[in-house]
Every structure is written in C-alpha cells, then in structure tokens.
Design brief:
The chain is α/β, with parallel strands linked by helices. 35% of the residues lie in helices and 17% in strands. It folds into two domains: 6-80 and 347-448, Alpha-Beta Complex (Aspartate Aminotransferase, domain 1), CATH 3.90.1150; 85-344, Aspartate Aminotransferase, domain 2, CATH 3.40.640. The protein is globular, with a radius of gyration of 22 Å.
Length: 451
C-alpha cells in the first residue's frame, strides 16, 4: 500500500516532515505510527512511516483519522486503481477454486498468463518466468543474459533503479540502494551517465537535435569493453525523463554490433502507464528481454515477470528463478484479470489522452514561471522540475519540499524524485475532472512559493 510521504533522498527527520507530523498526524494515526517504528527495521524511504493508511479505493487513500488523499504515487502498482471490484471478485473465486500450486505442478491460470504476456509483447518475446517482485525478475534477466552470451559484464545508468536485491542494486545506480552496502557489489557492472535532455551540456539546440552523445557513450563502452552481456535500462526513467528521439534505436543498433542483449526494465512503466502497453514501443524498438512487475498484480498481490526471446530459452539444465510462488494460481489470476481490465476499459489509450491533457495544462499554466525548470513525461507519468535559478538550473530542493507539503495539505499525495522533481503518476482510471483538480492544486502550490 502507498504511504503518504515518499521523498527520495529526504531525511526521515527533515524539518518539513517534523512540521507535518506535528500539525497533521491525528490521534488515531499517531499510536500506529509509533508501533510501526518499534516493530520494523528502519530504512530510508520506508520506516519509520509518516502516516497511516486505513482505506484505499480507486484513486483515493485514507488515513485512520479520515483524511483523504488522491494518490499520485502508489508505488506504481495502482494502474487500475485500488480495490477494483472485478479484480477482487476474480481473486476470491480463484481462492475457492485453487489457492496454491507447488512449483513443479502446472495450473491453468499460470499457463494462461504466460500465454497472454507472450501475445501482448511484440516480436519474439514469448518465453516467460514469474517471480514475486521486480528485483527478482531483473536478476532472472541478468542470469539469462550471462547464460546466452557467455559473458558476465553489464552496462546500465547511474541514477537508475532496478531493485533492492544485491544483483539488482549492483546494476542500479541509485545511491540509496548502493552506498551503505559493506564490501563490493556484483563484479562487472559498468555504468554511464543517463540521458537527461534538460540538463545535458550537449543539448544546446534543444532535445530534438542533440546529437545523441548519451547513446554514443553506450556504443563507445560496449566497443571498448567488448565482453558485455547486456545493457539493462528503464525505457523511460521514472524520474521522469523521456529519452531523446532516436536514442533507443541507436542503443539497439549498438547492442547488435557488439553482441550484447538489451534488457528493458518496464516494472514501473509497463502495462499502459506511458500511453503504450510497453514504454519502449514509443521508440520503435524491441528488446531481447523485458521485465514487468508492480501493477501486474493489480495493486493487490505481488507478481512480476521476465519475458525473453524464444531463442534465449537456454537455461534448462540449471535454475534461474526457483521461486516457491513461481506458478501461484492466485497471483496469476490477479495478473490475468488486471490485463483484462486494462484492455477492456481502454486504459492504455486513456493514459495517452489524459497525459497529453495534463502536460498541455501544466505547460500553459506554468509557462515562464521562474521556479519551473522543466515539465516532462509520457502518458500518466509526468513531472515538474523545481529550480531556484531557471537560467542556471539550480535544483530547488527546499522549494520542492514546501510545494509537496502544500499539496499534501490540499489532499494530493505524490513523491519527489532527485530532490526537486514533483513526480506525478496517477492511476489510469482517474476521471479527467479529478486529474484537473489535482493539477490545479499543484499549480497553486508552485505559484504560492513565488509570491
């Protein structure tokens, strides 16, 4: 379930958070928050918690004291909204029919889900393995790449996130998941600077004619190392950052030239969030392996998937993802029903339409605002970068935090990425009127900081 405060890199004891806790935590919430702090191991971005959650339905979350918030974060699980009645009914029925399957016994929901994912994925992405989380799905992908290529090195981006497991954290680039691990991480995990058009020093003429220096660096490293098994990356960074036109086509070609596989981590972006079923479809490429997760379980059950080209089915003599719940019929039924809801309710097309509405509105309302450095995104994953100096692009971390808490007070929850990017990711089922209300809250909060 989503918690209300999700500010990446924010100290659990920040002044703004202390003020929020003092002024806004009600008498029913405070005891549970204290018990949570006593019961759970503490870690950044999780425990101690800043609020409670008692109810989640549709686009809304509600705390124990009755405070309601539109949830524009949701850990990227709530594509179909919380507690979708059709999904709950399907899970209940499946529990009555078959609640578990030992790993070496197959069952109808698991096979049907694998077949459905193979139909959804383009090209020859047709062989599937299920895991319980996205981090594990990415590690399965890495094992397949090693087995298929006979190589062990990887290439990925600094600031990327691919999961919290040791292997996933090694290929990931977020300091929060790397900096406090004693000893070395996975060997051979090379990193390059990520695409970030707004801040790119080579992007003097605008993002459409940037020269693709970022993609050329990947080609350079692949050629220089000459033994990289795979490039693993998010097709659109959930920060959010949209790749420059032609970026992924260039990387795809470089992988072909140098014998490396291309793994697309679609765990936050897949299943329609960006206005396409898969975010990489915006860029007219097909990867060798794609991973899905988060929203695949419909915001109720944990399930993730690794989908590979058929000729990468080369690991039959050893285990690459030996999971107890590998073919769980209940989680498989949840995923199947989630996909049926996304397709049946036209949510992919809806995300595209509402995303264009949101970006147009924000750009019109915030055009020339001195604290807005950039507005970017695809579909219903978009963000506003807050700066102190528009010309120098100085990050406005304190200002972004003030805007965040003003929005929270007005009933809108989201997260801050990279310290200063208001990152908005509403459910695909949101009504346009509710989306408009949320955008008005954000615009008002931004403008209030410049008065």
């Amino acid at each position: 379930m989503a918690k209300i405060v999700h500010t990446e890199g924010e100290s659990n004891r920040s002044a703004a958070r202390v003020a929020w806790n003092s002024n806004s935590i009600g008498p029913k919430s405070a005891p549970l928050i204290a018990r949570d702090s006593d019961a759970f191991l503490h870690q950044s971005l999780s425990s101690p918690c800043a609020a409670t959650i008692a109810k989640a339905e549709g686009i809304w979350i509600e705390d124990l004291d009755g405070n309601r918030f539109m949830d524009f974060h949701g850990n990227s699980v709530h594509h179909i909204g919380y507690a979708h009645p059709r999904l709950i009914a399907a899970i209940k029925t499946q529990l009555d029919d078959l609640s578990f399957a030992p790993r070496r016994y197959t069952n109808e929901p698991a096979v049907a889900l694998a077949e459905k994912l193979a139909l959804l994925a383009p090209g020859d992405l047709s062989k599937v393995l299920f895991t319980t989380g996205g981090s594990d799905a990415n590690e399965v992908a890495l094992k397949i790449a090693r087995a298929a290529t006979g190589r062990f090195k990887t290439l990925s981006f600094w600031d990327s996130f691919h999961g919290a497991g040791m292997g996933a954290a090694s290929v990931g680039g977020e300091a929060t998941f790397r900096s406090h691990i004693a000893g070395p991480l996975l060997a051979g995990t090379e990193h390059v600077a990520p695409f970030a058009c707004y801040r790119c020093p080579y992007n003097h003429a605008g993002p459409d004619v940037c020269g693709l220096a970022c993609a050329n660096m990947i080609d350079y490293v692949l050629g220089r190392e000459d033994d990289v098994a795979a490039v693993i990356a998010e097709p659109m960074r959930a920060v959010p950052y949209v790749p420059p036109p032609g970026f992924w086509r260039s990387v795809r070609a470089a992988c072909h030239r140098h014998g490396a596989l291309l793994i697309m981590d679609e765990i936050p972006t897949g299943l329609g969030k960006t206005g396409r079923m898969f975010a990489f479809e915006h860029d007219d490429i097909i990867p060798d392996i794609v991973t899905l997760g988060k929203s695949l379980g419909g915001g109720i059950l944990p399930i993730a998937a690794c989908i590979a080209r058929s000729d990468l089915d080369v690991c039959g003599d050893f285990a690459i993802g030996h999971y107890t719940h590998e073919k769980n019929p209940v989680t498989a039924r949840a995923a199947l029903t989630t996909i049926e809801i996304i397709e049946g309710e036209g949510l992919v097309e809806r995300a595209d339409k509402l995303g264009r509405f949101a970006l147009d509105y924000l750009r019109e309302e915030l055009d020339g605002d001195p604290v807005v450095g950039d507005i970017r995104g695809r579909g219903l994953m978009f963000g506003i970068e807050i700066v102190e100096d528009r010309a120098e692009k100085t990050p406005g971390n304190d200002r972004a935090e003030a805007i965040y808490y003003a929005c929270l007070e007005a009933g809108l929850s989201f997260k801050i990425s990279q310290g200063c990017v208001l990152t908005l990711s509403p459910p695909l089922v949101i009504e346009q009127s509710d989306l408009a209300t949320a955008l008005q809250i954000v615009v008002a909060a931004i403008k209030s900081t410049t008065k």
